């Protein structure tokens, strides 16, 4: 009796489950994937990277230097440094003191410090690093500095790496001698891993010692380059397989004032000769004031080009058009004084592509890269708007096109995806015959889903589009409470089907901003988060990676009842052929809370057999990745079975699904 009862209960449960599946939890969608005709090639540049030095992304981040203010060039010369056993305002203190000395006027390395040691047992000089120093047990760190004896008998510099409690975890002594500047280099291997270490210097002997360019780098950098880039962060970029690298920003291109704009010529040549500049994000937001945020330009234009080459990505530099950030001063260079700005653009092309017998090609060669970087793109202006931008852009366009007709010039439609600024800019740039127009949008997740059709109606014979900066904002633009949650990432995934489906005109796309230090950020959300030791990709990163590494080579149609799938029942889709892999790639995004069964019907080519599905899914739209759970939202791989010319697949709620099936 019990057995029969259990069987009946089981049968009822199965029937109830089937009923629920048919009536509520599941709906079936018929999709047609037409492989008989390609619509447009998917450009290799379709998915790329936008880099800006915001959120400590360069100094304190990608650039692996661990010493803050290594050459004492900050506006406050000793910022980042402390002398715990010294009253630096008293020349009569018993231990000693260090004071900055300006020994060069102009630009470059202007300052050094004069360290006066009165009591070698008592004087210490400390550097705090960028929100501390991430130090790993057993790794090797290269400590370098410039020094000269000035008076007395200071004969050694002792360097100590300290943990958070001030305990020594590595130490080394370096003999110094001579009244001329010399560079000293040693290596240190710590015996402990710490998140927020620091550097302490002490001295043997008494007297005065000149000290400059105090530097500490891990030796295990990207590609093993001395004084190079942080390996884990570049690896995350490399794994995106980006088609381009846009640099150096962003609003730092413009500067709050023209005097503080980014000038590429000051970022090349010997690192120790590059002038520092206060970062334009240092006090931009009251919620995240960072007055110690400067640019050393150790990561400069040469290093950006080199990184592009490492990533297999097209370099896409953006230059000032002679207008400071219009959200700040909006300062304009007069039209009759614009020539040096235009010349900077022409000289940059020569630096990137010129032969070694050209002036700027020789600079590149002297830096260790005699071969050209083969730059194809250059951007003029970032988020400028209005007649002032158009007037200046025309001058750049004429000069660059005349001398370098093969260079593709990227223009900008302003900071917003709609409104008067946008409409005016698009109209004027179309009349000029602009090749590529950069559009930016920081909007709500709802906006991204609703605008998956944005480019469906764009003129196929008009300018190409660069979706240069986009990110769904969970709260509001520039809110410190924005989150990189699954809701934002899923909305971006839905929107990106529209980018891909319009590959005829949308040829470059990139999320922004790229990186943020966990304790040094100013803006959220951001694609990659890092601290002094670790880094991880957000759900937004995982979405970008799935698109970029599964872009295919040719756009094809995927439709439902002859129409594009753009939000019907919460579903969005795009499809490509991958001629290199011999596969068809279908991306399906489900923004609904229901499981949806899709029937994929293929025509035009034969399917070989079972395929695979890369799935990103999470039922909690507020879920994020974190340092503690870095892979909370990350792809899993499932199988999809093929029968003849069709395949069935159950699309999970709130999911991105990349379906790959081999074809004949």
TrEMBL record:
<dbReference type="Pfam" id="PF22848">
    <property type="entry name" value="ASD1_dom"/>
</dbReference>
<feature type="domain" description="Alpha-L-arabinofuranosidase C-terminal">
    <location>
        <begin position="468"/>
        <end position="655"/>
    </location>
</feature>
<dbReference type="GO" id="GO:0046373">
    <property type="term" value="P:L-arabinose metabolic process"/>
</dbReference>
<keyword id="KW-0732">Signal</keyword>
<dbReference type="Pfam" id="PF06964">
    <property type="entry name" value="Alpha-L-AF_C"/>
</dbReference>
<dbReference type="GO" id="GO:0046556">
    <property type="term" value="F:alpha-L-arabinofuranosidase activity"/>
</dbReference>
<keyword id="KW-0378">Hydrolase</keyword>
<protein>
    <recommendedName>
        <fullName>non-reducing end alpha-L-arabinofuranosidase</fullName>
        <ecNumber>3.2.1.55</ecNumber>
    </recommendedName>
</protein>
<dbReference type="InterPro" id="IPR051563">
    <property type="entry name" value="Glycosyl_Hydrolase_51"/>
</dbReference>
<dbReference type="InterPro" id="IPR013780">
    <property type="entry name" value="Glyco_hydro_b"/>
</dbReference>
<dbReference type="InterPro" id="IPR055235">
    <property type="entry name" value="ASD1_cat"/>
</dbReference>
<comment type="similarity">
    <text>Belongs to the glycosyl hydrolase 51 family.</text>
</comment>
<keyword id="KW-0325">Glycoprotein</keyword>
<dbReference type="InterPro" id="IPR017853">
    <property type="entry name" value="GH"/>
</dbReference>
<dbReference type="InterPro" id="IPR010720">
    <property type="entry name" value="Alpha-L-AF_C"/>
</dbReference>
